[in-house]
Amino acid sequence: MDTDYIDFYKVIHGINYSNYEGVYLDTLLPEIMKAKEEGKIRHITFSSHDSPENIIKLIDTGAFEGMLVQYNLLDRRNEPALAQALAKGMGVEIMGPVGGGRLGMASNRLRDLIPGISGTPELALRFVLSNPAVVTAFSGMNTMQQVDENCTTASREEPLSAQERTQIEEALEENRSLSELYCTGCNYCLPCPQGVAIPEIFAAMNHHRVWGLTDLAKHMYSHFGVNNKDGKLNAEGCVECGECEAKCPQHIEIIRQLKETHAAIG
């Protein structure tokens, strides 16, 4: 690598607590600590897609000085882990701040949460950077315009005011509750005898109906149908047998909502 040392070394990409207790402690830790003592590594960090509870366990080992985890407007489950990392003085990097591109699509509903926002990508990045635990966010960019826009957003002295962040969090909680009225994704309705991907179809519909991400919803829905490699059909595959409605703990009118979904984003 033609360098004397590495500042931040991610020991294992995608570490989980089980391989920390196994591979890491048994095999890697002695070599990593030796490299750090020799000055070849300055800081030991990790990336993880494990559960928030297990990420907190990794933080509490005291073996790491930083971490890379997922966090965005649509996926806030790692907030407890971010808070723990902040309390421990760890550096936090964020992957997927724009939801893997999902929040790169237009949504007037999200954009209008804060006056003066240029679009959902700016809102998404400012939301992530306003978390006090976050040091930096890794945002994939495809064009120079996106680079310029992200640099402008990240250069703001204050990503969001406390009032703006509270306003967004309240709206997100309201939208989350609304999403669960339509479908919680419990999967109790499965298996569908015909192979209709009911929870995934409703998840796509929620992006349209709740979040205003209509283009994304249509893109998600387009993957279901007779050409789906896993045999997952869209709403047209429903024969109205009613088996799913009998199993739904929320008593959702699934047949009617499948028709509404196909009409809206099919």
Explain how this protein is built.
This protein has 266 residues and is α/β, with parallel strands linked by helices. Helix content is 46%, strand content 10%. The chain has 11 helices and 5 strands. It has helices at residues 17-37, 52-60, 79-87, 108-111, 120-129, 144-154, 162-182, 198-209, 214-221, 243-247, 254-265, and strands at residues 6-10, 41-47, 66-70, 91-95, 134-138. It has a 5-stranded parallel β-sheet. Strand 1 (6-10), helix 1 (17-37) and strand 2 (41-47) form a beta-alpha-beta unit. Helix 8 (198-209) crosses helix 11 (254-265).
Dominant shape: globular
Q: Can you tell me the residue ranges where pLDDT is under 50 for at least 5 consecutive residues?
A: none
By DSSP (H or I, 4+ residues per run), the number of helices equals 11
Biggest beta-sheet profile = 5 strands, parallel
Radius of gyration: 22 Å
Number of strands: 5
Helical/strand content category = alpha/beta
H/E topology pattern: EHEHEHEHHEHHHHHH
> How would you write the strand order of the largest sheet?
1-2-3-4-5
Cα(first) to Cα(last) distance is: 50 Å
Share of residues in helices: 40-55%
> What's the average pLDDT?
89
* Oligomer designation: single chain
Which strand-content bin applies to the residues? 5-15%
Task: Kindly list the characteristics that best describe this protein.
266 residues; alpha/beta; 5-stranded parallel sheet; 5 strands; 10% strand
What is the gist of this entry?
With 266 residues, this protein is an alpha/beta fold.
